[in-house]
Please model this.
Amino acid sequence: MSKIALITGATSGIGEACARKFSECGYDLILTGRRSERLERLKDELETGGTKVKVLVFDVRDAEEARKAVGSLTGEWSDIDILINNAGLALGLEKEYEGNPEDWDTMIDTNVKGLLTMTRLVVPEMVKRGSGHIINIGSVAGDAAYAGGNVYCATKAAVKAISDGLRIDLADTELRVTNIKPGLVETEFSKVRFKGDSQRAEKVYDGIKPLTGTDIADVAFFAASAPKHVQIAEVLVLATHQANGTVIVRKQ
Ligand code: NDP
Ligand code: 8X3
Model:
């Protein structure tokens, strides 16, 4: 069996692109998400190319479901080499004092607690085996808040702190921790943020060539394939005409 990467949120966007990249580069894959048909379709496609694929359908917000899913992995499938904590979302762009507390819960439970749940389930085995790599998908949104970003930005600032903390806790091991912080990436992210309003979602990418999921997957693979003594700790990846979370130069 080849090296194994477990990717959360592999049904779309950055997670799906990571699945394709790591498959092309010889990894076997554990693909997770809630939309089982999409995962099965991707599994069929990647298996045609010779990759071994296991699908685990669960919601990362449900720690018990996650525990059962990861616990169902037996034999070689439990030797996970790379954990890509990618599942996540933003909901809304309201002012903080007008925001929807249910949306806050969803973002915090997915982006922060879901990522912690997966880390807690997968990393102890890596420590026992003495090797492994955790790649967290943070965001430029975690560097500084932007208008209406409030709680989403807070979750991505938490991903930075959680990645930094884990890196400290693993510094006496061979394990590595990478926090990748993308800027604008054209995926289903904005459609989800604006709850299905495609026109509003498309406007986010008006007048700028955004990143693609593949651009981020390439960075994740670069970090994963660095020599063992090299830990790519954090990477900020932006479209050329984006300077930070708020400065975006758009062509009219
Ligand atoms: P997509 O909406 O295209 O993909 C999000 C993925 O997360 C889907 O596969 C979805 O799977 C999964 N997901 C969401 N909620 C849950 C849940 N509760 N349980 C399990 N899986 C879940 O967006 P992106 O690919 O853009 O987003 C991926 C990550 O990248 C997120 O963490 C996001 O915050 C981050 N990011 C995105 C940027 C962008 O501009 N697009 C920029 C910076 C960071 P399913 O719905 O099938 O469960
Ligand atoms: C996603 C990038 O700038 O839309 O994290 O928040 S942004």
Summary: The pocket of 2-hydroxyethylsulfonic acid (ligand 2) is lined by residues 139-141, 149, 183-184, 245 (CB under 6 Å). The domain at 4-183+211-237 is CATH 3.40.50.720 (Rossmann fold). The chain is about 40% helix and 15% strand. The first strand starts at residue 4 and ends at 7.
